[in-house]
């Protein structure tokens, strides 16, 4: 059972981080999708709802998305999906159900860095950066390699490159966690693939346009064997290449 002693609503990001750093057991609250399932006691829970981190802003160069924006908001945001080939709609539409996607936040999904994350897999194929209180603005790929520490995700930045991107995945049932997920962006001289739920966290793979062969390290768990995932990699990569090349699939 999750037990919370105190909930605080800081009015600045500095105040939020000060509260977080006072005790290693303190937690920032996102959508609480996974946190509420833990059997822990939280001395101080920090709610970021007063920090205006729930907006999607668009400029000529990029999108700036607050950590408290929900997955559902990204899924149905027309400018965002138009700019990136419906990557977010395709990646988020099968994550459990609309009710959960109305609660799950982008910041919580990014900070958690779950191996099965469709959110991270979808974002990694794009030119994406994460802004946190401690590290400032760094690439998402770099962020996924950091050790877990007390920090606050503030914003996600996605550059408008005009390149073709796509997302696909395989699930054992419609709302289950992915057996394997994959995304891709086509550059002038190479493809950028991201393969996740291996069952480890999504990883970036680059390969030339004329040689689409990936050496993806897969493993086994209750959703699929290592050998099965290796076969899925071949199929999903082929599907993604057809999508970004503009062919029917």
Question: What report would you give on this structure?
Answer:
This protein has nine helices and twelve strands. The protein is α+β, with helices and mostly antiparallel strands and 249 residues long. It has a five-stranded antiparallel β-sheet with strand order 4-5-8-6-7. Strands 9-10-11-12 form a four-stranded antiparallel β-sheet, sandwiched between helices. The protein is globular and about 55 Å long.
Low-confidence region ranges: none
The gross shape turns out to be globular
Q: H/E order of the elements?
A: EHEEEEHHHHHHEEHEEEEEH
- N/C terminus separation: 45 Å
Radius of gyration: 18 Å
Task: Name the average pLDDT.
Answer: 93
* Portion in strands: 25-35%
Keywords:
249 residues, alpha+beta, 5-stranded antiparallel sheet, 4-stranded antiparallel sheet, 9 helices, 12 strands, 28% helix, 28% strand, globular
Helices and strands in order:
Blueprint: E1 3-8, H1 13-21, E2 27-29, E3 41-47, E4 56-58, E5 62-66, H2 71-76, H3 78-83, H4 87-92, H5 98-101, H6 106-112, H7 118-124, E6 128-132, E7 136-139, H8 140-144, E8 153-159, E9 164-171, E10 178-186, E11 190-196, E12 203-208, H9 226-244
Parallel strand pairs: 1-3, 2-3
Antiparallel strand pairs: 4-5, 5-8, 6-7, 6-8, 9-10, 10-11, 11-12
